[in-house]
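Write out the 3D structure for:
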Amino acid sequence: MTDAATLAARVRDGDLRLYELEDHADAATAAAARRHLLAEEVGADLDTIADYAFDAAVADANVENMIGATQIPLAIAGPLPIDGECTSDAVYLPLATTEGALVASVNRGAAAIRDAGEASTRVLKRGMTRAPVFSVANVEEAAAVADWVRASFDDLAAAAESTTSHGELQEVTPYVVGDSVFLRFSYDTKDAMGMNMATIATRAAAEVVEEETPASLVAVSGNLCTDKKPAAINAIQGRGRSVAADVFLPSEVVEARFGTTAEAIAEVNTRKNLIGSAKAASFGFNAHVANVVAAAFLATGQDIAQVVEGANAITSVEARESGLYASVTLPSLAVGTVGGGTKLPTQSEALDILGIAGGGDPPGSNGDALAEVVAAGALAGELSLLGALAGRHLASAHAEHGR
């Protein structure tokens, strides 16, 4: 077996490229060779980057040109009691973050939910999307292609589902823009987040479109999906899992946990999350859902870039006669418990904290459970931050934690 120093020298001499190292050594040695080369070229100390706990070969499907691992502090918030379709328990939510006071904030919201009883959660819709774009000669052809697609769902489903043993095509919606035709495919991907599954299946269906119509495929992703970008279509039609969580907090819980009133929290939500977000033309009408989504995604091996659509959420708050009603609705949360980063040991263990690592029984139930937990965590985070703002102790909380 070639050692790391020898491999690094071959790269430096131009005999090998960085991405070819795994062809000449195991994954760990290849990573060590890259670190050796970097240490020589930039003078960096990479000892901590080199000190990772998993087998480098496990990450082959997740990263190229590996040199080591980035470690992010991992915490838990909870227990967080949830009454959902796939989660009916008090759970500890794993959160990986570098933002001080975040976990403390979510923990405070979870405590308020515990005092009130539990948060209710429901997955409202499932559907991972991919939207290829086709070119045609003119609007007449575009309309004809759209009509054919509407009449040919079974043919498209047969082609798409021939590529997967798990995914199911749910719908195909055509959109015409001049001589461009976009087809938004939506799949039930069960416990997988399903982006790769949807892409491969859609490519097979696109071949049928090309065979049966004058349309020519330009790109298997035409940005109407919409993946990892802010988009109204995700907020309206959903993507991944659409999930909601709510809770009613009695007035005494609001006062005890947040030092303020239901009316004050409701006013902050209206003026900040609704009016302020509208003035900013924001897609996210919430306080900091992205914080919880990002921390949960990092902890459990989700695609962190999909925080963009995951944080596209609406927080609703209403002061009622005897307390505070609050809800969060996340229309486009892309989560899974199989595939991708969920296979990495640390992330798999984090899913084990929730009892949902791997595929669920029935299929899709673990993915739904994760969506419910993230939604409940987001609700806890929203309650805590809105309470801190209403009680005017946000700055003091950060100062207390030294942030």
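The chain has three domains: 4-61, 74-126+240-400, 132-219.
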